[in-house]
Write a structure and sequence with these properties.
This protein is mostly helical. It is about 40% helix and about 0% strand.
Amino acid sequence: MLENFDPASIADEPLRAIVLPLMNEVERLSGEVKELKEDVQRLRDENRRLKGEQGTPVIRAVSQPPALSSEQERQVPRSHRKRVKHGQLTVDRQEIPGLRMHAVGADFHDPDR
């Protein structure tokens, strides 16, 4: 309220003697009013809680969320190398596609033969 007020700037000594205790009393009463308001709000919240209602919500300061963006990672060009599925395949047998008689069964007979 009067943070920038300097009581030494009052030239009249009896007036300064009256103003200083009054300012101290105003500051003490302001602090007491603040404490009483907090106490009243706490009691109101307690009454609401006992009635099954919700008290006054605690509102926290808004803070910036952490940067979770991967924009910088996406902008970094990476070289693409196509990898081989099978490095080196060695041919160890030769198979001719056709009809396998043992897989078909013994009772099958080919009309073209």
